[in-house]
Amino acid sequence: MAAPATASNPLMHPVRDLVGRLHCPSCWHAMRPADVLFIAEDPRLVGDPVAGADEPLRFLPSRFDLTGAAIDPEGARCTRLACPRCRREVPRPMLELPAKILSVVGAPGAGKSHLLASALWSMRRDLDRLGLQVMDAEPRLNARLHAWENRLFGSGGGARRLEKTETSGGAGYASVRIEGRTEVVPAPFVFALRRGQEPSPSSTLVLYDNAGEHFLPGADDALRPVTRHLGRSEAIVFVLDPTQDPGFRAAVGLPPVPQPPVRQDLVLAEMAARVRHHRGRRSDERLEVPLVIAMAKADLWATAARVPMTADPFAIGGDPGAALRASHVACLEVVRRGSPEFAAALAAAFDRVLVVPCSGLGRDLAHEPEAPVAPRWAAVPFVAACEFGEEGRLGGFRP
Ligand SMILES: Nc1nc2c(ncn2[C@@H]2O[C@H](COP(=O)(O)OP(=O)(O)OP(=O)(O)O)[C@@H](O)[C@H]2O)c(=O)[nH]1
Ligand SMILES: [Mg+2]
Ligand SMILES: [Zn+2]
Q: Does pTM surpass 0.70?
């Protein structure tokens, strides 16, 4: 809900509408725009008691220049903002636009990172085809994603694979000192989201790429609240890797593999338990948060499973529901045959489910590591998740 900025709020000049309240995308602290800190720009002001010894000082400004930028204690002009609790940077568009949070969940190795990189690459470029577009809210904060996009789609040579997502450390997480104890918070990707014919973005889109290990039972706790976004997300994209499941492999004629399978039905059940916990729901309550099952690595199984992926679901002028329903029904049939326990876990917990076949890479890079990638329907699960809300193109859609 946007509230007008008051004359006493020097954050924005010329005066723009600010949201009344927002949540920090790292630690979930609720704040008003006037509560945010600024990040010092003067090179002498390095070291912050919460953000860390290598981070610039965060401060509550008392001096501003004529454009509304804050002046730090050494006189430098500052425009970057930070959460007053964890002191991680908050992209400025989050103060001006309501946030839409998407949780991306899935077992280790399910294909989350490759799918996310391919999907966002397409959502930056294919406005006309998808009817929706993302732009970096603060490019510096999405640098990790840019590196992935370059790796997969850039013209440089080399293997087109992304590393496994780290479970802690690295650029995907930050350690902060809050009230004398260390807390690990996730680093979000934040975008401005523009729909169809809108002249400018109408919301921000906040996404997280967790390591699959974080979704295994017992892996999230108060000092490492890296999956707490499940309590606030407007929709969830669960990346299901059918090629990790022996029953599914048999159902689509893939040869068995020696590795012990990850029980993806248990990952789903654990996720449902965390969603309930963070939203204060009873353990027998079914969840109304829309769930998109991104059935990954379709290059390996969709043809054998006779799942249709030809019609472009979000092609302008078409009915996205028709193409999505056809592939949903075909996928669900394979899930029921190959992994009845997953189908049961799904039916037990969620009211609104859409299953979407997709492939972030479009090919098996284990055999041709430097071949160009050819994603198929990579953005479809994410666009569907964005459109599942009341006001979206799939608002009334029941698959
Ligand atoms: N054939 C095929 N393989 C894929 C595809 N997407 C990912 N893979 C492979 O699957 C493996 C795991 O992919 P990731 O994207 O790293 O999986 P993840 O879910 O992010 O895994 P964690 O970071 O461990 O949680 C990699 O070896 C990829 O090459 C795809 O669309 N098709
Ligand atoms: Mg990953
Ligand atoms: Zn915070």
A: yes
